[in-house]
Design a protein that fits this description.
- The chain contains 24 helices and 26 strands.
- With 653 residues, it is of the alpha+beta class.
- It has 6 domains: 51 residues, Orthogonal Bundle (Helix Hairpins); 215 residues, D-amino Acid Aminotransferase, Chain A, domain 1; 104 residues, OB fold (Dihydrolipoamide Acetyltransferase, E2P) (Beta Barrel), CATH 2.40.50.140; 73 residues, Orthogonal Bundle (DNA polymerase, domain 1); 81 residues, DNA polymerase, domain 1, CATH 1.10.150.20; 81 residues, 3-Layer(aba) Sandwich (Rossmann fold).
- The strands form 7 sheets. Strands 14, 15, 16, 17, 18, 19 and 20 form a 7-stranded antiparallel sheet that branches. It has a 5-stranded mixed sheet with strand order 3-13-12-4-11.
- Strand 15 and strand 16 form a beta hairpin.
- Helix 1 runs antiparallel to helix 2 and helix 16 crosses helix 17.
- About 1% of the residues have low confidence.
Length: 653
């Protein structure tokens, strides 16, 4: 178990390094450190026989299928009998030992392993026939593709998508494809994709809950089964051993559901004694060895005060029910999403109506019923953000409201999140969701408005997730961002092709003089090494656009550009492209070395190409791929010592 945890930690570090290197053009560890970690992981995988699906030592190919084949389960998968009474659980268990676990709300999957390798994955389907999704299961985030056990193994578990991933993923799914109402629907849609590249992007996790076939002595214990599955590399559902203390255990789960990131719609109680459970058999509908416990929804009566129309960056305008505050599951609730116009019509909502509200799965506020049904809500004809035309769409008998104005501010949300991101103005506390709320409330209409949010303290501190402290932290972060550099500011405007590295090159070219930076000509830009014609055209087009000019000018009124005071004579690496490989000894890390190069006009890239001028590597005899490539292309390899000599004298020997 300890070794498996260590493997997972190494995978996490290696994948983080890969993402930084290949997607973000930065390094969080040296090649030496990476190779060392990689080799250690490979060795541990060979030693344990376990290879997890997200391990960087494997690459699962993407495949497009024309359909998902169906297959009959060897053993029918029955539903569970249910209760909402803890006393019924206690009576059901009697004097025996039980296993109480989360009832995850996803898609049940059956996995088959032969010879230590995953050979098949099938959905529950209708309980008798499921769909074969083997190729998709291979790209789940945590399924072991290889395990130490070499016999035949069949197990069951739940495929789920966490709440945090659901909100992120659902936000970027195009409206044409269709938004998902909850993590379960998103998971089902993701698991059953014909193209497993899409499945891989959805962060589907798998959590085992039982073994169907395995020639292993589990000492007649479900708990032993689950612990054995853990040792094989599987994630398993969180569980507790229970006896007469079952009320305390249920209470523990109830207290923790609000902070639990995986979707759960209750609990499952199973006899720990495997043989006893099997001896009970089953009814035509339910197995007798397990029972489900469903939460009793706490329903409160309240008064509907208004319907708030919330526009998103996809153009969808959602109705939000605002009602008199009520206490639900320990928190005060005053708003709930209605999701679409069809639900609004079904509830026949009207201002002043008496409604019932509850928290679905004890987390998400919902309107369950309308006792008055005055049905007097008027559907807006204009977008609440841009006042452009709003139209009603009807897809598969579900009505939704859309803003059709492509210039709508709500659709420009990405430009705001980029503007405040870490490498741009670095304003902490402004997530995409928070910015969307500020835009929806009309507090932010252009980038410069972010610098004036202190005027709306009363509104923001009453927003969900905000209080006095978080508001003050946000204002401090905004004011801190007023002092910035020309390169950060240039990068913050999100000009196509102008990343932070290119923004630094352009700023140095014009000695941080913003007027010259903003008015740079196409000819001046393409003189800079690393700036191509397409980038230069996008750049000039951006600053020639009258609307963009106003946005930039308004931001300039709010910020103070700090000058680097680097003299032109110090730009000794101008037009030189470097690649760094191997461990560094004279600098803290590669980022520090990269900063020194960029400060003096050079550029650092992640891979060796024909455009590379120098490869910095202390080990000239290294067999690394970068060394080999540099030698093939005739690119000079220099040591840190040679680089420092060049930096101090201004001349390369």
């Amino acid at each position: 178990m300890e070794k498996l945890l260590l493997m997972k930690e190494k995978i996490k570090l290696l994948n983080k390094a890969n993402k930084a290197y290949y997607q973000e053009d930065r390094e969080v560890m040296s090649n030496y450190e990476y190779d060392k970690l990689y080799d250690e992981l490979k060795e541990m995988e060979e030693e344990t026989g376990i290879v997890l699906s997200n391990s960087p030592t494997i690459r699962v190919g993407y495949e497009l299928l024309s359909n998902l084949p169906e297959e009959r389960h060897e053993k029918a998968m029955l539903s569970l009998d249910k209760t909402k009474e803890v006393s019924a659980l206690r009576d059901w268990l009697g004097e025996r030992v039980g296993v109480l676990s989360w009832k995850l709300d996803g898609l049940t999957i059956v996995l088959t392993y032969e010879g230590g390798h995953l050979t098949k994955a099938v959905t529950r389907g209708n309980g008798e026939i499921g769909e074969v999704i083997t190729n998709n299961a291979k790209v789940f985030t945590n399924i072991p593709l290889s395990i130490a056990y070499k016999g035949s193994l069949v197990l069951r578990g739940e495929a789920v998508i966490s709440y945090s991933d659901f909100y992120k993923i659902n936000e970027i799914i195009p409206e044409a494809v269709g938004k998902y109402k909850n993590p379960r629907n998103l998971c089902s849609g993701s698991v059953r994709q014909l193209n497993n590249k899409i499945t891989a992007e959805r962060n589907v996790g798998f959590y085992a809950f039982s073994v169907v076939i395995a020639d292993v002595d589990f000492k007649n214990s479900r708990i032993e089964q689950l612990n054995w599955l853990k040792k094989q590399g599987f994630g398993v559902v969180d569980f507790k051993k229970v006896t007469s203390d079952i009320e305390d255990a249920v209470k523990w789960f109830e207290e923790h559901i609000s902070e639990y990131d995986l979707p759960s719609d209750g609990l499952v109680l199973t006899f720990d004694d495997i043989k006893y459970g099997e001896s009970l058999g089953s009814t035509s509908k339910f197995p007798r060895d397990s029972i489900a416990f469903k939460w009793i929804d706490e329903i409160k009566e309240t008064k509907l005060l208004e319907i708030e129309w919330s526009a998103s960056r996809t153009g969808l305008i959602n109705p939000i029910a605002i009602f008199e505050p009520v206490e639900l599951e320990g928190t005060t609730v005053s708003r709930a999403s209605i999701h679409n116009l069809s639900i609004l019509e079904e509830l026949e909502l009207g201002i002043g109506d008496t409604i019932n509200v509850y928290k679905a799965n004890m987390i998400i506020p919902q309107v369950s019923d309308n006792l008055t049904r005055s049905n007097n809500i008027e559907i807006p004809k204009h977008c609440p953000v841009c006042s452009g035309e709003a139209i009603i769409k009807n897809d598969n008998d579900i009505k939704t409201l859309y803003c059709i104005n492509e210039e709508c501010l709500a659709k420009q949300i990405k430009s705001f999140t980029h503007f405040v991101s870490r490498d741009a103005l670095n304003i902490k506390g402004l997530s995409e969701a928070t910015i969307e709320k500020l835009i929806a409330k009309g507090l932010v209409k252009e980038l410069a408005d972010i610098f004036h949010i202190e005027k709306f303290k009363g509104i923001i501190t009453n927003m969900e997730g905000f209080g006095e402290k978080s508001f003050n932290n946000l204002v401090n972060s905004v004011n801190k961002a007023r002092k910035t550099t020309s390169s950060r500011l240039l990068f913050s405007f999100g000009i196509a092709g102008i990343g932070l590295s290119n923004a630094k090159l352009i700023s140095r070219k014009f000695n941080d003089d913003w007027e010259k930076i903003q008015n740079a000509s196409f000819e001046q830009l393409i003189e800079i090494s690393g700036i191509g014609e397409v980038m230069a055209k996008n750049y000039v087009k951006f600053f020639s656009d009258e609307k963009k000019k106003i946005i930039v000018e308004d931001v300039l009124k709010e910020v103070e550009i700090e000058f680097s005071n680097k003299a032109k004579s110090e730009q000794i690496f101008e037009n030189q492209i470097f690649v760094i490989t191997g461990s560094v000894e004279k600098f803290k890390n590669r980022d520090e070395l990269k900063a020194e190069i960029e400060e003096r006009g050079g550029k650092v890239t992640s891979s060796v190409t024909s455009k590379t001028n120098y490869l910095i590597n202390n080990d000239n005899l290294s067999n690394s791929s970068k060394n080999k490539k540099a030698k093939e292309l005739g690119i000079e390899i220099i040591t840190e010592e040679q680089f420092l000599q060049w930096m101090s004298t201004g001349e390369k020997e």
